[in-house]
């Protein structure tokens, strides 16, 4: 198998694992609104549900996962200098898949929060190590497109996660966790075999020219430290919108449009298709435009992101102001396609400005900042929902998301634009 064929095969397998990575973390928000939580409008599982408040729900959807995920990524990413990347990815995939399966047997909120923490630990190491692996096997001129293809896993995986709403209707939430968790074990073991050649390529490219520094020292000494810092802040603000929408879109549709159990299942299935198709389209469009324009302007990758977020803001206002679920879904296709061009180009800038031997750890630091800050979005939304002024509105979830999402889209756009001026 040629290196080109191998690179494509490796990218395909990493993408498949990343799809499961994203769908497994999306299961809980969807299933909470589908009857796992007793206080929802669902009557599907009224004798098999768990009681907890809106604030505890926000904690479960947000920091419980994101803080462990982000800090664990920084601590565990350093393993790539001592353990083969293929072994790290294989072990992490198998671990979080087993944790997802274990969610089928929870009986209390504390079971949920413990397993959510473990899920964060299992998924923490995959992303930075996978990004460094892709950067090693793809040349600079193809890197943004390769990373954008990889990041389509966010959308395809998120789409599968929304399909859990439909699976829940027929299988129940416990069996749904098993159905989504089991395939990852097989893919994790397969990667142990396929990833060996990538380990050899990485050892050649990533060989340090001198003594290896600590990641924070290396970033501080880098001439791009200001760019890296600003990029972390921009991505963090952008992720507040992403995490808030991911956690509360099911609640928005259920509560604002007063959907029945069957209507909710169908709506989540349609949402899954939209997320998968439009997210994939937006991600690949962002990568293609970035690689095409990067030769003429060093700031092109970040300029593409800045423009896309400006275009997405009025579209998401239309979604949240819609009067019917079908109208909201239709406008969401435009909002999502525009908003989701950003992940691949932003991750590519991190890989471009950091020395090869520090890529995994630099990616982990970048992910840590944007995940911790972005992960506070669901916690903030949950707290705002309990504020008396918002609770008295006709649709508290709509009011809250109207305040949070367009604001963070526009603010992140400005930050990405000014970060590009540093390149």
Q: Give me the count of strands.
A: 0
Task: Give the SSE order as H and E letters.
Answer: HHHHHHHHHHHHHHHHHHH
Strand content: under 5%
Unreliable stretches, pLDDT < 50, 5 or more residues?
none
Mean pLDDT: 88
Cα gyration radius (Å): 21 Å
Portion in helices: over 70%
Q: What distance separates the N and C termini?
A: 37 Å
Largest sheet: none
Number of helices: 19
- Structural class of the helices, strands and pairings? mainly alpha
Overall shape: globular
Short characterization:
The chain is mainly α.
Describe the structure.
The chain has about 425 residues and is mostly helical. Helix content is about 80%, strand content about 0%. The protein has helices at about 5-35, 55-60, 65-75, 85-100, 110-125, 125-135, 140-170, 175-180, 185-195, 195-205, 215-220, 225-255, 260-295, 300-320, 325-340, 345-355, 360-385, 390, 395-420. It starts with a helix and ends with a helix. About 55% of the residues are buried. The mean pLDDT is about 90.
């Amino acid at each position: 198998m040629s290196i080109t064929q191998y690179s494509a095969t490796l990218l395909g397998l990493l993408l498949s694992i990343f799809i499961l990575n994203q769908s497994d973390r999306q299961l809980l928000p969807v299933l909470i609104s589908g009857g796992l939580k007793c206080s929802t409008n669902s009557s599907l599982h009224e004798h098999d549900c768990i009681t907890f408040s809106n604030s505890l729900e926000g904690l479960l959807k947000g920091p419980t996962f994101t803080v462990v995920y982000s800090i664990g990524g920084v601590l565990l990413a350093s393993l790539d200098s001592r353990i083969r990347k293929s072994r790290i990815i294989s072990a992490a995939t198998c671990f979080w898949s087993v944790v997802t399966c274990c969610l089928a047997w929870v009986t209390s909120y504390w079971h949920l929060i413990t397993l959510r923490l473990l899920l964060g630990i299992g998924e923490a190491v995959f992303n930075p190590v996978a990004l460094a692996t892709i950067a090693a096997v793809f040349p600079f001129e193809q890197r943004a497109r390769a990373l954008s293809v990889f990041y389509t896993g966010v959308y395809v995986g998120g789409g599968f996660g929304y399909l859990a709403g439909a699976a829940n209707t027929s299988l129940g939430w416990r069996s749904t966790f098993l159905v989504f968790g089991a395939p990852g074990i097989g893919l994790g073991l397969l990667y142990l075999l396929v990833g060996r050649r990538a380990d050899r390529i990485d050892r050649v490219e990533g060989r340090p020219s001198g003594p290896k520094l600590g990641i924070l020292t290396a970033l501080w000494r880098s001439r791009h430290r200001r760019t890296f810092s600003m990029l972390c802040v921009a991505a963090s603000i952008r992720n507040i919108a992403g995490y808030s929408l991911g956690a509360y879109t099911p609640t928005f549709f259920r509560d604002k449009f007063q959907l029945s159990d069957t209507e909710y299942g169908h709506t989540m299935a349609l949402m899954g298709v939209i997320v998968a198709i439009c997210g994939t389209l937006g991600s690949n469009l962002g990568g293609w435009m970035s690689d095409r324009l990067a030769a003429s302007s060093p700031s092109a990758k970040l300029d593409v992101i800045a423009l896309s977020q400006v275009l997405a803001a009025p579209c998401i206002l239309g979604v949240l102001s819609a009067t019917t679920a079908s109208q909201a879904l239709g406008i969401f296709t435009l909002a999502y396609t525009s908003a989701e061009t950003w992940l691949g180009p932003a991750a590519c800038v991190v890989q471009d400005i950091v020395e090869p031997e520090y890529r995994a750890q630099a990616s982990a630091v970048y992910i840590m900042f944007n995940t911790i800050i972005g992960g506070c979005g669901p916690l903030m939304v949950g707290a705002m929902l309990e504020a008396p002024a918002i609770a008295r509105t006709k649709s508290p979830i709509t009011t809250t998301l109207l305040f949070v999402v367009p604001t963070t889209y526009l603010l992140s756009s400005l930050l990405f634009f000014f970060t590009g001026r540093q390149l």
